[in-house]
Amino acid sequence: MTTSGRRPRNGRQYTFSLRNLSVCFGLIAIVLLAAGTAVKAGARTAEDHPVAAVALGLAALSAAVAIRRRAGRRASPAPSARRGDVLTPEAVAPDAPEEVPLGEADFEAMTPGEFEQAVADLCERDGCQVIGATGGAGDLGADVLATTPGGQRLVIQCKRYDAAHKVGSQDVQRFGGTCFAVHDARIAAVVTTSEFTGPAVEYAAQCGILCVDGQELATWASTGPAPWAE
Q: If pLDDT is split at 50, 70 and 90, which confidence band does 80 have?
């Protein structure tokens, strides 16, 4: 017995056959019978040889897990290929921040340690051999030690102050008590981002200490020459 089905979109007509349906159910029954027989055989083998059955089961489980992992690795794209990302030299090794030229540096925005290093860099730029920039506690007033191109020993104290904080005479006096006697300076200078008070300038002039204020520092950094070269 054959019945007509609905006409598909491609214009062809298919038929429903009881014979084909019987064959299909027969094949399904054969497969189920074979599967049941295999399960029974496996159960009997497990009863007779339980260790071997467990080993085979574990081996099958391990193989299935390994196959699944490999399939997952193949399916997942590489990190560089996700979402259309492309690795560039900048992404692998980002560029280091560009160094600001000394003539454009904002000395007031620096930390005291950065300011001392910037002054040491200025000295080195102008031909001095910097011995050390080791400011801090215990430096006895010598933030920068260097030798000028003429071979003179240069000792600098750095004062990174804001505009409202001027370098007073006591600051210069403390430096004057060590720069010559302790550090054997031939050229002694106090460099600040701020200004000097009148008494500080007078004391420095009496002792032979150079006073470099913020304006003179900016001129030195941008056009030079070094204050002691004049």
A: very low
